Amino acid sequence: MADTIIFQSLPARPAPIKTEGLIPWIRSNLFGSWQSSLTTVIVAGLLLYFLPQFFNWAVLTATTNNNADACRADGVGACWGVIKEKYRLILFGRYPFEEQWRPLVATLLMVGLVVASCTRVFWNKWLGVLWVVVLAGYFVLMSGGVMGLSKVTTDRWGGLPLTIMLTTISLVLAFPLALLVALGRRSHLPAIRSFCTIYVELIRGVPLISVLFMASFMFPLFMPQGVTIDVLIRVLAGITLFAAAYMAEVIRGGLQAMPKGQSEAAASLGLSYWQTQFKIILPQALAMVVPGIMNNFISLFKDTSLVTIVSMYELTGSLGLALNSDADWRPYKLEGYLFITGIYFAFCFAMSRYSLWIEKQVNKSKLR
Amino acid sequence: MTTQAQDNIIVFDKVNKWYGNNFHVLRDINLQVKRGERIVICGPSGSGKSTMIRCINRLEEHQEGHLTVDGTELTDDVKAIDRIRKDVGMVFQQFNLFPHLTVLENLTLSPMYVGKVPKKEAEEKAMAQLKRVRIAEQANKYPLQLSGGQQQRVAIARALCLTPKIMLFDEPTSALDPEMIKEVLDVMVEMASQGITMLCVTHEMGFAKAVADRVIFMDQGQIVEQNSPHEFFNNPQTDRSKDFLSKILGH
Questions:
Q1: In what side-by-side order are the strands of the sheet with B72-73?
Q2: CB neighbours of A241 closer than 8 A, spacing ≥ 6?
Q3: CA B234 centroid distance within chain
Q4: Mode of pairing for the β-strands spanning B197-201 and B38-42
Q5: A310-325 burial string, b = 16+ CB within 10 Å, else e?
Q6: What does A130-153 look like in DSSP terms, one character per residue?
Q7: Do the Cβ atoms of B96 and A261 come within 8 Å?
Q8: Pairwise CA distance, residues B234 & B248, whole Å
Q9: How does residue B165 score in pLDDT terms, banded at 50, 70 and 90?
């Protein structure tokens, strides 16, 4: 009888060529092939050519003097004085100058509320109460008419506070609506399914501008005599319905990707339809579409700039308002646009980073 | 007659089912399952085995005939379906654990939300079931962190948390590596000794010989033959079952 051979595994050893670290990264990503090396060289050359010129214009020869004549002098680059001169008008639009502390406080409250809602420690039952309180405070501060605050009608609201408020409120309303529509499009009840499908197709078939036009100008024609709904509310409803249709399709994509076995397992355990959706299907489906939903959020934030079309001057609109009305400063639009670009970018970048964090949280269960 | 009806926990009476208009997947199924009986169902793929057991907890609807489970006939009555699902546990080929919940949460979900059991009690019971399937130390891991065999044992424990009267197994070992099949079968053998009614779609003939009271052979939506395991394997009655057995036992 032969002896049994004892199996012995070979010891693991490190890879012969390093694949982690800065130099291997540069080698594989920037100079991986001759095409890639060529592209790297061309892009680096263009950057070396243009960046110093931009730096020269934006910093070295720029002036921060808020005197239009100083900007017109020869050899002067960027005229940041326009921001110094007009920032109140750009940031707050036509809101009465003396009262601009009100939108400032109200907006800080709202941003604080949004940041709190995005933070784990605040995810408890009091968050809903906090929302009601802050929103009530927001509208009291903004419109006034009580507690000695002078009345400011919504057509004078503007600038960054309007942008943030339109985004926040329409997102908060659009998200649950989108959930229901996404579930509705997969319902086995034909009436609900066709209603949701028609809604999505109708809204997606028209540009946001026309939705806003209809909300602002056509809707009042159908109202009974003497009944008016504030244009702000009509516009909010328009943006919400628009955003929800797109978001619903993103969420439906996540629902479609769910294996049938998940709902079957839930059914076999006796869970009802709504229990199955809220405990099993939606948590997983939403986790899959976090990048898509965040895409919607970010584009909605920027889409609010379209409300200028119905004479509501949010950030982009109030920049136009600030510069077009003043012949001295009108030539320095570029600086103004760079300024609000920076503001838009800061908000969008924060949203994008937050989305990465959320992705990490929801994917914890997939880590081995 | 009445005592016999009470003894039968599941009764298929001329049950027919179609997928779409033309695919006649179950044809005149007549089957009585006694309380505590352990049945193994085998047959080629597409023969309707899975569909038949999935009718028992209404994951599939039959279109003709009568299907009675524990004295309640399955119809569109949602309340009756809910009641039956509490008494029928099911284990799937692909485990179908909820990947976003921990093992323990997978087990307590239904007792807490369907059975309205307090959290602490549900967790105690879940831990007892996890011990029974010998996996208690993994309670706070997520399903995807476990091996296939461990996941399937969790799935069995999850179904047992409802204290079902009937357990349905739909090819529970078909998605497992050969080395993991045994640990799942061991758990099932242990369950079989506890007197629960079991219907198991499987091709594990060793399991069938060891625990089944009856083997059912299906083909083309019909029950072709049913017999005790000993008789079925040693003395098959139909040419179709002889042919099938020669293929799966041929090696």
A1: B23-34, B8-19, B64-69, B72-73
A2: A174, A177, A203, A211
A3: 25
A4: parallel
A5: bebbbbbbbbebbbee
A6: HHHHHHHHHHHHHH--STTPPP--
A7: yes
A8: 14
A9: very high
Which of B58, B82, B85, B110 to mutate against chain A (most A CBs within 10 Å)?
Answer: B110
Q: How far apart are CA A173 and CA A243, in angstroms?
A: 9
Distance from CA of A89 to the nearest CA of B (A): 49
Confidence band, pLDDT 50/70/90 cuts, at residue A39: very high
In A, minimum Cα distance to B58 occurs at: A268
Is there a contact between B215 and B226 (Cβ–Cβ < 8 Å)? yes
Of the residues A188, A263, A269, A278, the best mutation for testing chain B's interface (the one with the most B CB atoms within 10 Å of its CB) is A269
Taking an 8 Å cut-off on Cβ atoms, the answer to whether A261 and B101 are in contact is no
Tell me the two tokens of residue A311.
């004479």
Q: How far apart are CA B38 and CA A135, in angstroms?
A: 62
Average pLDDT, chain A: 87
The amino acid occupying position B24 is: H
Would you say A60 and A40 are in contact if contact means Cβ atoms under 8 Å apart? no
Residue A7 phi, psi dihedral angles, 5° rounding: -75, 130
The answer to whether B12 and B67 have CB atoms below 8 angstroms apart is: yes
DSSP B224-237: EEEE-HHHHHHS--
For residue A4, what pLDDT is reported?
85
Residue B189: helix, strand or coil by DSSP? helix
A48 CB-side CA count, 13 A: 6
Residue B19 near residue B45, CB atoms below 8 Å: no
- The tens digit of pLDDT for each residue in A154-208 reads 888 888 999 999 999 999 999 999 999 999 999 889 999 999 999 999 999 999 9
Q: What is the pTM of this model?
A: 0.84
Q: What is the largest CA-CA distance in chain A?
A: 106
ipTM of the complex: 0.90
- Residue entry with tokens 């790297």: A40
Name which of B54, B38, B1 is nearest B211 in CA terms. Answer: B38
- What are the distances in angstroms from CA A159 to CA A155, A316, B227? 12, 7, 81
Give the residue among B27, B108, B114, B110 at the shortest CA–CA distance from B63.
Answer: B27
Read out DSSP for A102-132?
A: HHHHHHHHHHHHHHHHTSGGG-STHHHHHHH
In sequence order, the β-bridge partners of residue B23 are B19
Domains belonging to chain A, first-starting first, are 153-315+350-366 (1.10.3720.10)
